[in-house]
# Entry
Amino acid sequence: MKHTLLALLLLFGVTSAVLAGDFEDGKDALAHKDFATAFQKFLNAAEAGHTKAQYMLGVSYAYGKGVSQNDVQAYKWFHIAAATSTDHKVRVLAVNSRDALAQTMSPHEIAEAEQLARDWHGT
# Structure
């Protein structure tokens, strides 16, 4: 039992470090205007549940930085960050960004983005 607990603690510690590493690498790439690398690093961290990275993916898609501009994908990632973040500031930014973007989207696009977000949560 002690070995199992130790293994889990090590796994979570390593996983957290990797997530933080990808996010930090993404921020560094963004600071150097290497948008493609920033996007990939944020994507890696976001898919593993890093909520700040999820928000940054929304920004990347909204402005077409490192990826083709795509309102549906931007809304999806803002929606995911808003739903999953325990950081109040990230949640507020994500909600405000999602809601502002929704003003420029059709009801069909919003429904598609929300379905993509639900599908992502299901994985």
The radius of gyration is 16 Å. Residues 2-31 form the longest helix (30 residues). DSSP finds six helices and no strands in the chain. Confidence is low (pLDDT under 50) at residues 1-18.
